[in-house]
Amino acid sequence: MTQTNEDGKVASGRWYDRRAAVLLILFLVLGVFGLPFLWRSSGFSPREKALYTVLTVLYSGVLVGVAVWVIVLVPRLLSRLLDIM
What SS3 state is found at 4? Predict the structure, then answer.
């Protein structure tokens, strides 16, 4: 059983039970590869886990889409630029 402090937050020695740590991992470091840490964490309710899973998948999809768009766009822009020169 997990212990909580007076604020109702999880008091555990595991880093993935800290909400801020898991959210940083999800949105700034690992993206969808951080989802196992979210689901192992006792710092989130099942409803929050589902919500953050959907948000992480959407966020990661947007990042991949932007990366692909840039990879396709840059060579076209460079070829046009070289044609002008």
Answer: strand
How many CB atoms lie under 10 A from the CB of residue 71?
9
Of the chain, the end-to-end C-alpha distance in Å amounts to: 69
- Whether residue 42 contacts residue 15, with contact meaning beta carbons closer than 8 Å, is answered with no
Contact 60, 31 (CB under 8 A): yes
For residues 43 and 9, is the Cβ–Cβ distance under 8 A?
Answer: yes
Rounded mean pLDDT, 36-61: 95
C-beta of residue 41 within 8 angstroms of C-beta of residue 22: yes
Query: Do residues 56 and 35 lie in contact, with contact meaning Cβ atoms separated by under 8 Å?
Result: yes
Model pLDDT, residue 68 = 95
- What is residue 1's predicted lDDT score, i.e. its pLDDT? 45
Residue pair 40/16 in contact by the 8 Å Cβ criterion: yes
